[in-house]
Amino acid sequence: MASSTEICNQALILLGQEPIITLDDSTKQSRLCKRLYQPVLEALLRAYPWTFAIKRRILARDLEMPEFGYVYQYTLPSECLRIVSVNIPSEDYVIEKNKILTDHDDVRLRYVGMTDSTNDFDAQFVQVLAHRLAKTMCQALTADQDLFVKLSQTEAQLIVLAQNTNAIETTPQPVVEGPWIPSRY
Fold first, then answer.
1. Burial class (CB within 10 angstroms; exposed 0-12, middle 13-18, buried 19+) of 32
2. Angle CA(84)–CA(87)–CA(92) in degrees, nearest 5?
3. Do 120 and 106 contact (CB within 8 A), yes or no?
4. The pLDDT of residue 19
5. What is the pLDDT confidence band of residue 89, given thresholds at 50, 70 and 90?
6. What are phi and psi of 13, to 5 degrees?
7. What is the rounded average pLDDT of the residues 137-150?
8. Residue 78 phi/psi, 5° resolution?
9. Region 43-61 average pLDDT
10. 3-state DSSP call for residue 160?
11. What SS3 state is found at 57?
C-alpha cells in the first residue's frame, strides 16, 4: 500500500505541485505535508469507524477510584481516537478525559485506534486522505479558490463511497431498544 510520502505526493499532484522525495525535504511542500499529515489523518480516522482501524481491548481497572458517582474507572488506550462500542449499556458509564467511569467490573472496548502502518489503510481511505490533505494545503500552496471547491466536492463524493463500502463489508450491529421505543405505543 501507499506510504505517507506517497499519500502526500498524491495530494500534491492534485494541487498541480511537484512531488516530494521525503517528508524531511527542505521544500515548502515537504514542510507543509509533514506538519499536516498526522492531524489530518487523526481527524479522518476519528470521523468514522473505519474497519481497518478498529481494535479491541479488555480494559484493566485503575487502582484509583473516582471521587464520586461511580465505583470504578478505566483508562482508555492511548491510541484510542473514537469509541465504537462498550460491553455495558451507555446509560451505565460516562467518559471523562481519557477515562471510562462505571459501576461495572468488566469493560470490553472496541475503538478506532491510530494505526501504526499505512499498509493497514483501505485503498478508498487513501484516496479520501489524499484529497483531504490536498484540500487542507490548497490555500497555502495555490491560493486557488476554484480548486479548493472542486477538491471539497470530490472529497465529499469519495468519502461517501468509502463509507458505503466500509458499511457493506461490516456486519450490522444489533440495535439496542431504548426506553423511547415502547413509549411511542
1. buried
2. 100
3. no
4. 94
5. confident
6. -65, -40
7. 95
8. -65, -30
9. 95
10. helix
11. strand
**Measured torsion, CA atoms of residues 29, 35, 41, 46, in degrees rounded to the nearest 10:** -150
pLDDT, averaged across the chain: 91
Span 159-172, pLDDT tens digits = 999 999 988 887 77
Cα–Cα distance, 29 to 137 (Å, whole number): 9
Question: What is the rounded distance in angstroms from the CA atom of residue 107 to the CA atom of residue 58?
Answer: 6
Of the listed ranges 32-36, 141-145, 147-151, 177-181, the one predicted with least confidence: 177-181
Three cell numbers at 99?
477515562
HEC states along 83-148?
Answer: EEEECCCHHHEEEECCEEEECCCCEEEEEEECCCCHHHCCHHHHHHHHHHHHHHHHHHHCCCHHHH
Buried b / exposed e along 91-126 (16+ C-beta atoms within 10 A): eebeeeeebbbbebeebebbbbbbbeebeebbebbb
Given this model, what pLDDT does residue 174 score?
66
Decide if 177 contacts 51 (C-beta within 8 A): no
How far from 59 is each of 68, 91, 147, CA to CA, in Å?
A: 20, 19, 46
The residue behind cell 487523526 is 42
What is residue 181's DSSP assignment?
A: H
Range 83-110 average pLDDT: 93
For residue 75, the SS3 value is: strand
